[in-house]
Amino acid sequence: MEVAFASLVIGILLGLLILIIPKTRMRTKSDHTGKLQVNALTKVQKAYSKSEVALHNKRSDCWIIIKDKVFDVTSYVEEHPGGDAILAHAGDDSTEGFYGPQHATRVFEMIDDFCIGELEKQ
User: Fold this and answer.
1) Residue 63 lies in a domain
2) In this model, does residue 44 exceed pLDDT 80?
3) What pLDDT score does 22 carry?
4) Closest C-alpha to 32, from 4, 6, 60, 7
5) Per mean pLDDT, which range of 9-23, 60-74, 82-96 is the poorest?
6) Beta bridge partners of 117
7) What are 74-84's pLDDT values in tens digits?
8) Residue 75 CB coordination number (10 Å)
9) Sign of CA dihedral 93, 104, 82, 109
10) Residue 118 in contact with residue 45, Cβ under 8 Å?
């Protein structure tokens, strides 16, 4: 009887933890230097300079800056509903275009999946 009660209590506590901890996708990727970036509950990220971000300005290597955060959107370029518009500010600040009227609210939810770090404070 005590074992059943203890199991029930542990089950309830685990269930509460699952509900309390935010749902986060575990992703790993390598940045351009081959260093592993992990985005999960621990969010290991790096600070990038503007000049470093500027090097990633092609369809096959596309980083953008939105509100002082750096995003590697290379894997999304081909899927972008606005076509090559995403490349207009590749390697540069895309904040103004990102917050334009053309974007549905779902982009604000999905953009964090592409975050690889922050812009260095100057």
Assistant:
1) yes
2) no
3) 45
4) 60
5) 9-23
6) 46, 70
7) 998 988 877 88
8) 11
9) positive
10) yes
**Domain range holding 54?**
47-119
What is the number of domains present in the chain? 1
* Pairing of the two strands 115-119 and 69-72: antiparallel
CATH code where residue 66 lies: 3.10.120.10
For residue 61, is it within any domain?
yes
In a domain, 57, yes or no: yes
Convert the chain into a string of H (helix), E (strand) and C (coil). Answer: CHHHHHHHHHHHHHHHHHHHCCCCCCEEEECCCCCEEEECCCCECEEECHHHHHCCEECCEEEEEECCEEEECHHHHHHCCCHHHHHHHCCCECHHHHCCCCCCCHHHHHHHHHEEEEECCC
Query: Could you tell me if residue 94 is inside a domain?
Result: yes
Q: What pLDDT sits at residue 101?
A: 75
Average pLDDT over residues 70-93: 90
What sign for the dihedral angle of Cα 39, 72, 92, 76?
A: negative
Q: What percent of the chain has pLDDT over 90?
A: 39
